[in-house]
Amino acid sequence: MSFKKNNYIFGPVPSRRLGISLGIDLIPFKTCSLDCVYCECGRTTNFTRIRKPFVSVDTIIEDLKPYLNKNNKLDYITFSGSGEPTLNSDIGKIIDRIKKISDTPIAVLTNGTLMDDASVRQDLLNSDLVLPSLDAVTAEIFNKINRPAKGVNILNTIEGIIKFRSEYMGKIWLEVFIASGINDSKEELSKIHNTILKIKPEKVQLNTLDRPPAYDNIKSITMDKLDQIRDEWKDLPVEIIKRIKKREEILSFSKNLENNILNTIIRRPLTIDDLSELTGKHNLELYKYIDVLAKEKKIREKIINNKIFLIPFEKQIK
Ligand code: SF4
Prior knowledge:
- The protein is of the alpha/beta class.
- The chain has two domains: about 10-240, TIM Barrel (Alpha-Beta Barrel); about 245-310, Orthogonal Bundle (Arc Repressor Mutant, subunit A).
- The chain is built from ten helices and twelve strands.
- An eight-stranded mixed beta sheet has the order 1-2-5-6-7-8-9-10.
- The chain starts with 8 loop residues before the first strand and ends in a 6-residue tail after the last strand.
- The mean pLDDT is about 85.
- The protein binds iron/sulfur cluster.
- The site of iron/sulfur cluster has 10 residues, from loops.
- Iron/sulfur cluster binds near residues 34, 39, 41 and 84.
């Protein structure tokens, strides 16, 4: 399968985890080896662990060049977006080509499920930072929170991440997403903690739900509970991820874009994909504005027929 979209490259966007990040999205929406209950991209429609090129290496490099020439001050060039980036079988070639034209560090956000494949681990060796996620360590909880594709196994995933740690010279920042009533039991958290000790990441980043998820019965845990986990895991380098809530934190903030978003949503509820189509901006870029507008109680998110819609704050939609 090949695909063509308007924006393989997006941003730069400010990221709590990565500073100022230029995004590269190598995957057709929404192609993933998992269907995490908290996924901000919505439900996985192309459920696979089979790697494909999807888009030519030259196309990505040519699309990227103008962004590098703009004199952007970037902390990272980051592979993320509409699914699992390591499903792109050319990611290693793309990383190698970027290294030849840019000094900016390269980060890869991954769910880690393909790391049991030696060629995937090999592909990531030339990057500077890999950010795998690990929300569960038992099959039961993994199935509940990450809903894996056929052939994806949590024990193989963990083994793959541990192997990668021993082969990789760059940094690993591990994200753990905690959902209330799913993976926040003392028992599972203790097992996750023990597994992280074996992985030995440079950072552990705790996260919880901050906007409507792909599945509507998912609940976040409180900030106090996150603090408590951080305190209990004091032998690990833990930090808690918080979202951007202020305009001044958005690089190249555009009042026009903010007004466009507001004016459009006031007229009719839209999904993030509708909005992306209308504005030509990538979902992850739009979310920065949406977070600010939501914080100011101008818009909110609501699940209607299993889809996340953006609606004006006051409007009640049944
Ligand atoms: S791994 Fe990432 S993209 Fe895939 S379903 Fe989970 S959160 Fe979404």
